[in-house]
Every structure is written in structure tokens, then in C-alpha cells.
């Protein structure tokens, strides 16, 4: 089963993802951008305010393709639980915002590029915080972390939830870290319980 954590910068994804390590020691914990050389290329581009947004999209997408073939698919084939801190929805939401005015219907465009090859998550835990809160928590290390930009990203996440409400579990990320972690852990437990009720294909 593939569970992803999504939300704007500073929403608490990494905090929740780290807490889950102790609860599910046999799971495979991974993240995007990855630590491969593709992920390093992505991070270089993140630090470059002048990077072309389409070039960014394809760098992030290359990193995703490598992540799928090298980490995600082998782990799922081995029957593991995979928990990813960010995944395809980050592209739909972030590059969907960055490509506004560059391509028509950017969120749908970015989704369309992924459809032929990606492996959609079984469930996505969405940590919801106000963009101002996210920006303050995250600091402003890269070009995608500014509150104005994060507001557009958050709207895109809401669109994605509207498209597939059954895939998402929304968690209020503005509470204490302990309360947020507890909600995320409860959500994962419920998801695993319900997966056990039926036969699930990778
Ligand atoms: P993300 O991975 O979504 O960017 P992090 O988990 O890295 O978020 O958290 C960003 C910053 O906010 C960190 O300094 C973290 O300690 C802090 N933080 C995380 N969750 C909370 C919370 N619920 N309340 C207050 N601060 C938080
Ligand atoms: P990340 O290291 O996960 O940052 P954080 O822990 O603060 O959430 O991601 C780095 C930045 O890259 C973040 O601003 C979100 C952005 N991003 C995209 O724009 N597209 C993507 O596909 C991914 C995975 C991340």
C-alpha cells in the first residue's frame, strides 16, 4: 500500500513522516524530491529564482520516474507499506501554480503528463494549514515557499481533493505537533485496517 503525505511547505509533513518511522518500522519511508542525482538537480533548480518553470516540471517529473522504478514499485512488489513525504500531488499543486499563464489548465496538464506512467497513491494524508502559517514555519529558503505562492498551491490541492475526495484524508495541521501526529497515525491505522478488509492489488 502506498500512502503519501501532502500539504504546503511548513504544514508538518516531515514531522508526521518521522513520527511514523517508529510506529511502522517495517515500512519503506521515502520522499520527493529524492536523494538521487535527479533529486539533487531538482534542489539546484529550487535555489535558482530564474529557472524555467517547464524545465522545473520535467526535472521534478524525471526524479519521480526514477523514484518509481528504483524505490516505490520494488517496495510495493515486495508487499511493503510505502510512506512518501510528498509525491505526484506536489507536482500537480506546485507546478500547476508555477505554470499558470504558461500553459492552459496547468493542473490538468501536469496530471496528464503523469497518467501514463505513474502509480497513484492508495491514500493521501493532506495536512491543511493557512499559507501564512506555512510560510512562517518553513522560513523562505526557496522560491516556492512564499505565502502568496503557497496560497495558489493550496487552492490547487483543494482542486485535487475535489477531483478524488475518496483518496484524501484531511488533517488540520494548525494544532500542536502532538495533536497533528496523533491524527496522522490514527488515519494510517484506519487506512491499513480497511485495506485488510479486502484484496488489494499493488
Ligand atoms: P513540512 O515538511 O510540511 O515543510 P515540517 O514538519 O518540516 O513541515 O515543519 C516545518 C517547521 O514547523 C519545523 O520547524 C517544525 O518543527 C515546525 N512544525 C511542524 N509541525 C508543527 C506544528 N503542528 N505546530 C508548530 N510548528 C510545527
Ligand atoms: P521539500 O524538501 O519537501 O520541502 P518542505 O519539507 O519544506 O515541504 O520540497 C522542496 C520544495 O519543492 C517545496 O517548496 C515544494 C517543492 N516541490 C515542487 O514544487 N514540486 C514537486 O513535485 C515536489 C516534490 C516539491
Pick out its properties.
binds adenosine-5'-diphosphate; 202 residues; binds thymidine-5'-diphosphate; alpha/beta; globular
Account of the protein in words:
With 202 residues, the chain is of the alpha/beta class. It has one domain (2-198): P-loop containing nucleotide triphosphate hydrolases (Rossmann fold). It is 55% helix and 12% strand. It contains 8 helices and 5 strands. It has helices spanning 13-23, 37-46, 53-77, 88-98, 106-114, 131-138, 147-163, 177-196, and strands at residues 2-6, 28-31, 82-85, 123-128, 168-172. It has a 5-stranded parallel beta sheet, with helices on both faces. The longest helix is centred in the first third of the chain and has 25 residues, at 53-77. The radius of gyration is 16 Å and the shape is globular. Residues 9, 13-14, 32-33, 46, 60, 86, 90-91, 94-95, 138, 142, 144-145 line the site of thymidine-5'-diphosphate.
